[in-house]
Amino acid sequence: MKNNKLYPLFFFALITFACIAKAQAQTDSLTIKLQQAFKQDSLPGMYVIMTNGNKITYSQGFGYADVANKTPYSASNIQNIGSVSKTLIAVALMKAIELKYFTLETDINDVLPFKVINPNDPNGKITIRQLTNHTSGIVDNPKVYHYCYHFYPKLRAYDSLSISTLNQMGFGDKLRDTSLAQFFYNYLSPQGQYYSKANFGEGPAGGVSSYSNTGSALAAYLIEIKSGLTYAEFTKKYILKPLHMDHSGWHVQNIDLKKHAMLYLDQKNRFPLYDLVTYPDGGLKTSPEDLSKYLMAISKHDKKLLTEASYQAMFTPQFSKEHPPKNINLTYRNKGIFWNLYTNGTIGHDGDDPGVGTYLFFNLATGRGGLFLTNKYLPNKQAIVDVLVKEAEKK
What we know:
Helices cover 33% and strands 16% of the residues.
């Protein structure tokens, strides 16, 4: 009879072992799938994190942060994240609204120190909301926007093929602006150095969708005007510091370069480090570890960042199925405030830049989410995204 008392403990241990074995099998299966996608896309390095809203449930590196020195890509390596940075503009903008700086319906000319008029819609009004959903009519003029990149060839080794490729693609280092204020005056004011009708799309504002890095960064500049802080300072105060994202920043001089992953054209050729004049639209430099803190905060509506009302507004679909703007297809996704609202039940954003491919998302129903960073431009992320999105569907 004494031995019977051991039966519950035995069965409990057996069940625990089975659960651990199942979890390990799922982890191994996810790693195998990601390894296949990693090899298929010939990536130098990649890091993947999955979360359940409260903690990291999967964390795995693939390949190298530095191929030549065979330095594994770790959770603490830092790199640019491209347009995933725009989700921070969304959070910063909602915080600015909480601080009563303006509303989503505010005319940008009520904030800017100079007047902006779309020559294709001279009587139109451009609102902050239209900046956030890419219908403002302020577009990226490639003859100017590609010159917003500032490269630092003296800071670390790079390869000449990468530079020549950038030049062929139209990227340059020709703008001497050192602030958002200087750039936007030159780009949007008729008296500005880069002003052109090509800086604007067809009107009216709100009626045509055109993805705009410039329009996105303009929203960040409005925060600067009203707060008296640079956008970098504002986001550090209201996002990075509250989340203890201590290894993240917007400019090369703010980053530990020893941890910065090499950025690659291919498996061998390296890009130099770079910043962007319009840095809010794609310039955040962070680590997978830091970015996972941000992902978990957003997915669980952490009150350290925003009120519940602000989260709800940020994730409200901007376009109706009955009257969508021109040039947008709602079959795959709608827009929130900068965030993409996908029809598969996830909310997220991707990012691209020279030597950069990133993705961050969470599943509304399960609270699970994921991210990946790779140190090479990835023309099609779908293979990796599909694996992570399917994993996040599991409860």
